[in-house]
Amino acid sequence: MSLQQLNILYKYEYDKERKAAQQLQIAEQDYQQNLLRLQNVGDYRLEYMRRLDQRSLEGIDSATYRHFHAFIAKLDNAAEQVEIAIKQAKALVEQRKSQWLTQRQKVKAVEHLQQQKIKVQEKINNKREQNMLDEFSTQQYVRRGVR
């Protein structure tokens, strides 16, 4: 494979790596947002429980008490749903990370091939240059000998 072909392959694989990195970043942001949602639901539930506790001390009728408990149950359900979303988001982060690492390895492999190709080309060029210098020296020697 020529160096030009390796350069084209490198650009292609590098672009795929960038896209994989972007997808990983998006998945991580989604995961973090879900963690924040869970924290917010938990905080709101705690605040609502404090309100219930305060209202209980002041005296509360049974309908209001049921209303508070029904709403707390809804918050618990919401927390469960967010926990499911967190697990899914975490799995997606792991999948995207694996894809990115795989793509990163491909980029490094192409970089390695490029470096090898450059070294081989340099050796060929150096040998060619040395042969030209040897030929030039030989011709000069022959010319001196002829005189």
From TrEMBL:
The keyword Cell membrane applies. It is a peripheral membrane protein. Keywords: Bacterial flagellum biogenesis, Bacterial flagellum protein export, Cell membrane, Cell projection, Chemotaxis, Cilium, Coiled coil, Flagellum, Membrane, Protein transport, Transport. Residues 14-41, 72-130 form a coiled coil. Its main location: membrane. It is found in: Cell membrane. It holds the Pfam family FliJ. Transmembrane segments: none annotated. The keyword Transport applies. InterPro entries: Flag_assembly_chemotaxis_eff, Flagell_FliJ, FliJ. Gene3D superfamilies: 1.10.287.1700. Signal peptide: none annotated. Belongs to the FliJ family. This is Flagellar FliJ protein. It comes from Thalassotalea profundi. The gene is fliJ.
